[in-house]
């Protein structure tokens, strides 16, 4: 079974992490993110070239409500079990802020936990991951999905990139103290989370500065800062912007791109890789 560290070592371009929302109310897919169709969508993304999948059962779009951990587990665990049965070699990540959900996912043999709360929501998240052999994505955020658009969370001083790096470094130190191995920790600037479009653009331009913390995951797919610039309010119409950003990130040697449109981004990266 290929493990994450093996494909990281062998890669010649960014790995593609296919997004599988199991929420029913994704900002990008809306009702098409129904739990009932999640396995089929996950299999399709793997067939389109996804190197790994990120499966999430709680929406973190602006204004989304917190759901109970048991409900979130009921959404994602059956999907994980079915994928382990149908594609035992698939590399799976679970997008959750809750240590209880992470524990249930790890019991299903997932390879990675993606915490979009920067380890703030569940104080024992780092301990849960450290007790496993899984990797951890620490994604930058401030506030909660309910209030992250408040202006108080958008004050990053004169240098938003330096502020994001410093806050991620603090969260990484917490993970290391809990016993998560350094080589298993990834960082994500989390475009759009408590950030203005201007701050997102600055972080994207200087994404390579995050490499001082370790391997970088970038989830810019269909994000609102692309839509604002392109005057595309419909997330489904932001493919062109997503591909352009993906190629820029590939040039900056970002390790993992978290995307919805796996086939199109994979094709673009294949041409980029050929031209190199």
UniProtKB/TrEMBL annotation:
Gene3D superfamilies: Dihydropteroate synthase-like. It catalyses: (7,8-dihydropterin-6-yl)methyl diphosphate + 4-aminobenzoate = 7,8-dihydropteroate + diphosphate. One of its GO terms (biological process) is folic acid biosynthetic process. SUPFAM superfamilies: Dihydropteroate synthetase-like. One of its GO terms (cellular component) is cytosol. The keyword Magnesium applies. Its cofactor is Mg(2+). Its EC number is 2.5.1.15. Residues 14-270 form the Pterin-binding domain. This is dihydropteroate synthase.
């Amino acid at each position: 079974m290929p493990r994450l560290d093996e494909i990281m070592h062998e890669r010649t371009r960014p790995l593609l992490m296919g997004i599988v929302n199991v929420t029913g109310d994704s900002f990008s897919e809306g009702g098409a993110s129904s739990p009932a169709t999640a396995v089929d969508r996950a299999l399709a993304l793997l067939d389109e070239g996804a190197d790994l999948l990120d499966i999430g059962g709680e929406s973190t779009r602006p204004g989304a409500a917190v759901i109970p951990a048991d409900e979130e587990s009921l959404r994602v665990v059956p999907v994980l079990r079915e994928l382990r049965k149908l594609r035992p070699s698939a590399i799976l990540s679970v997008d959750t802020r809750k240590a209880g959900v992470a524990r249930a996912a790890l019991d299903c043999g997932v390879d990675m936990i993606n915490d979009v709360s920067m380890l703030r929501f569940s104080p024992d998240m780092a301990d849960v991951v450290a007790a496993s052999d899984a990797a951890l994505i620490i994604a930058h955020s401030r506030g909660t999905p309910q209030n992250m658009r408040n202006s108080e969370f958008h004050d990053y001083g004169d240098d938003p990139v330096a502020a994001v790096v410093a806050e991620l470094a603090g969260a990484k130190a917490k993970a290391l103290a809990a016993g998560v191995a350094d080589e298993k920790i990834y960082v994500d600037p989390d475009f759009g989370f408590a950030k203005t479009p201007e701050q997102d653009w600055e972080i994207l331009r200087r994404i390579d500065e995050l490499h001082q913390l370790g391997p970088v995951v970038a989830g810019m797919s269909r994000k609102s800062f692309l839509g604002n610039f392109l005057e595309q309010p419909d997330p489904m119409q932001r493919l062109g912007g997503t591909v352009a950003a993906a190629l820029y990130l590939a040039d900056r040697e970002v390790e993992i791109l978290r995307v919805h449109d796996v086939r199109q981004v994979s094709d673009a990266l294949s041409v980029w890789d050929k031209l190199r």
